[in-house]
User: Fold these one by one.
Assistant:
Number 1:
Amino acid sequence: MSYLSLSDKDKKEMLARTGVGATDDLFCCIPEAVRLKRALDLPAAQSELELVRTMEAIGRKNDYSRHLSFLGGGAYEHFIPTVVDYLSSRGEFVSPYTPYQPEVSQGTLQIIFEYQTLVCQLTGLDIANASLYDGSTGTAEAVLMAQRVTSRNKVVLARSLHPQYREVVRTYIKNLGVEAVEVGYGPDGRIDEDALGRALDDKTAAVVCQSPNFFGVVEDIQALSDAAHGVKALSVAIVAEAVSLGMLEAPGKRGADIVAGEGQSLGIPLSFGGPYLGFMACKKEFLRQMPGRVAGQTLDREGRRGFVLTLATREQHIRRERATSNICTNQALCALRATIFMETLGKQGLRELAWQNAQKAAYAADRLGAIPGVKMKFSGPVFNEFVVELPKPWPAVDAGLRAKGIIGGYGLEPAYPELKNAALVAITELKTKDQIDRLAQALQEVLS
Amino acid sequence: MYPNDFRYTKEHEWIKIEGDEALVGITDFAQHQLGDIIFVELPAVGKELAARQSIGVVESVKSVSDVYAPVTGTVVAVNEALGQTADLLNKDPHGQGWIVRIKIKDKKDLDGLLSAGDYEKFLEGLEH
């Protein structure tokens, strides 16, 4: 299909062929009284040069790139090898549609299959889908899946699960008769296991816990999985920082039945919030309850290996209101970027990337913790983010740091009113020792 | 073609009474309409079923069809063989392709069902 605009000649020919006098005649069925009789209130068309200048002027209002930022909380700034942009912007990858016709889509389908395979390896589970929209909707889909698998209508969410993921889950379950109960955290920043024990019963479909959690603290997924399985509920592990899987044990090997999360860290730029990449994997016994597209491996009639979209009977175009989800797409281009990213780094590369994150974050925690008045809020082990508690309210500290060209962290009080004067600080491999020292220096000055 | 000792529904299920219990499956017509069957979603043993309630689902490559309980009762057994070989439903829909065994709650439910002759007439009617 050619995407070319119509010339006047094209329009005349179409009008002649259809026997319509003028374009306006096509709208004859719209009552005269409601027809708009003026031009739309839009600015005049611009030349390419004028347009570029207009957009650049708007773009200059964004000053994020002129700051040294330590923001995390579900979106992370990592190094993206050039090969990711280079390969993923090839026409063959950027232009194709959903691979419904396998005979003309083997390239697309093979990539999806490789992506699914990598997600299984990262998560330690048997099967993965072709990707979902993002971590928040991935979490919601996992909750709905657990409800279907167990036929139970209550889910237990850790309060340390990303606030926006929890909000999206509530939006999804709002009219479905599913109840979400939250369980708090302890002084180590991990889920309160006693409170969890009290919240679990034979109505619980799943325990949903993020690791590393929103506070950056690594949870004990095995303990949570055991607790969930003790009441025959599912253990759902959410991962918002995918790079952590380069170092932390795969949740599937720690009892998780479903792992969902955000793949943005794997070669996708921050892009002011999206597009991002939801991933999901599960145990093979739950295959038919898993949402999303799935690419499968098969043989053509000449016995050659090939790939197809498969298990379509889970999906809404066949199951309609009893489908596993209404999603009928994936994040193909983002999944491609993540696949190139992971295949470029390889297992060793991803492991080293994760270690650099952890080590630099540990250095930062030491430097910041040494500043008079600054406390590490939680005692639990962290990956590449941690919560600092300050002697002054965060908004004032934040303003002071921004005046020095630094975005020091993410204030937690709005989402967690009990965490006064606390901020979440993220350190990735991109931060140099000097940059971390600069943050420490600036914070000390702002607090004095 | 259609066993005389079975009863039938207009949704193309058959039921074979064996005392207080019955085997339930789908008819040859149904398996033919569905094409190659690749998966059968079976209910749990012990599940209580109301007449005309969905027992489970039969999947072919491109479609999904509910199987409805011809009578009210409790599932006492499911045909585990279908888990391995779903195409038993195509090959032997009236025999080895049985889907569930139900303990019938009220034998009066059988009164509304079709005999083999009535079912065959019903099928002829569909062809028009």
Number 2:
Amino acid sequence: MSAVVKIAFRNLRRNARRSFMTMSAIAVGAAAMLCFGQFIAETILEFQTGVVRQNGHISIFHAGYFDFGAGNPAAYGISDYPSVIRLIGNDPVLKPLIRVATPTISMFGIAGNYGVDASTTFSGNGYVPADLRKMGSWDRYGLFRGWPPIPIGITDSDESVGVIGVGIARILGECAALHVANCPTPPRVADVSPAIGAAPPDFAELAKRDMTSVAPVHHGAPRLDLLTATSQGAPNVASFFVIGAESQGIRAIDDSYVRMHFNLARRLLYGRNSTEATAIVLQLNSTADLALAQERLQFLLKSRHLNLETRDFTQLNPFYAQGEQFLGAIFIFIASIMAVIVLFTVVNTTSMAVLERTNEIGTARAIGVQRSTIRWQFALEGSLLGGIGATAGLVMAQLIGLFLNALHISIAMPGSSQPSRLILLTSSTAAPLMIGVWLVLVVVAIMAAWVPANQAARMPIVDALRHV
Amino acid sequence: MAKEAGRDVVRFLNVVKTYEEGAVNVTALNGVTLAVRRGIFSMIVGPSGSGKTTLLNLIGCIDRPTTGTVEVCGQAVAGMSDRAITDFRAHKIGFVFQGFNLHPVLSAYENVEYPLLLLGLNARERRKRTIAMLEAVGLYDHRKHRPNQLSGGQKQRVAIARALVKEPELVLADEPTANLDSRTGASIVELMRRIQREHSASFVFSTHDPHLMSHAEETFMIRDGQLVDHRVENGA
């Protein structure tokens, strides 16, 4: 066997230029697969990080909320969320897995800016500021190391302030006050209501009551009036002071998004002293623990006969799963093209080697070399081409990764409100991808060499010896 | 070398070999019956295209007859599997080719050692035999040279060493002097003859050069695929 290896190495050196060109093609293929694969992997991880920062890993809902709760969030609330959070926090299995357990409230209603006589439907989300801040610092993959904390736009000190999407700011004519760039000013409407500049009397009365009870003074922050239906079906209005407008990455969300303090949301939906929430969001330390945490959680809820159900972030964000599948499919497509190029390159190289060495093959067979040894001789040469080329590709990809990482390129991911940094070859996915690409290319090279190698092995000896 | 004195090393019985060349069947050997005695220097002589190489290919078990019986080293080769016949060649038959056919990426030493690797001999035994054979052909000092660093005569001597190093029962040389000048060719024949005598090996040597016939102990004349004459030297 050592002679076969020795001959294989020497044959590669014998046709150094051809071997170099073949290995270069494999190296470029490997580097392309790795860089693209890493880009995809990092994109998915960045995407996951964004989703987990915003929505956690697991959400617990009242049974049926996921299917019907959007139509009636008040009726599908979790009635005593503090006790559920305590139950989870005291569980010996879940406790070490969970980073944040926080109540949230989602609701729909009408947001009005009666200063410009405009109103629109809104989708409101209430968070506990400290918990949201902690969730926003989740960076399991180290992709945002060194980045400043993401501003959450809600504070512990003032429950009446929050942020809205740039779309809702545009619709309600608050772009200028919120310093939203590239935001058109609404045209003057000809048929102006005589009551412009003032809220309808009943709303105004409700809002006034709300302001006098909770809202401190806000220095120039635009005020919106949020109208919702309480769990009892009565209208409820709260004054909401907008301290910022954020792009949510998707226009439909931008046009309705409102982020507010949990207490304000609770007051709007359930009343001031309620202990209800529409969901409890759990953020885990690691996504790898998701299945374990979910299984344990379901066991815990079932054993306590709690009429609650869980959903993980992939279920709550179908865009994430779709994006992951789409990017994975693109990677497979690109990798397949690279593999085919490598396949044909190695087939060509090995076929030429077989043609040139036909006489050697005949001689070897005549003096007693078995067909299988001839076959392995060429397959080994193919695997060496693949192995050396793929290894060079790994090195090349590392250098490209280091170079690109040093450039600190920012890119905007689809559907994301935060900019992302183009980072390659840093995450935990890099090593498996490298091993995978290396193995695939070596296997492809062996397969490519196998066909001409088999032809060489089956060649009639006398024909091979006659070959000039 | 294992010898069974008194028996033939090669026996052909009414051997026919035809080739298909396009739509035409070409008969290379036509009913050849012969017996090559063990331990002597035999020569197959005939003009180009007479069927010498086909005859040697059949003796060397690298080709199979269309009809007839071929027996080499006491073994009827018909019906042997490719693996078995390859193994048979590795152990029993040494080849010397007209074009030397040395492995270009191996040194002289490695070329000579190569057949011993196929026999699975240990490193010490391989080294002992390889050095002895390189010394026998006078190329020990050139043992590290690659074929492209050797002259034609040196290459053929390496090829002879490669054929003999495994101590085969039969050595086949297909026009081994054809690519050499007459002086070098003569020295190669002398070398083969000497080694054959020293080892009492069975040599079958093909040539179209009648001048070399004087070296043979037994001569088979072949023409148009048929054996036309058979001579045995006195004392052989």
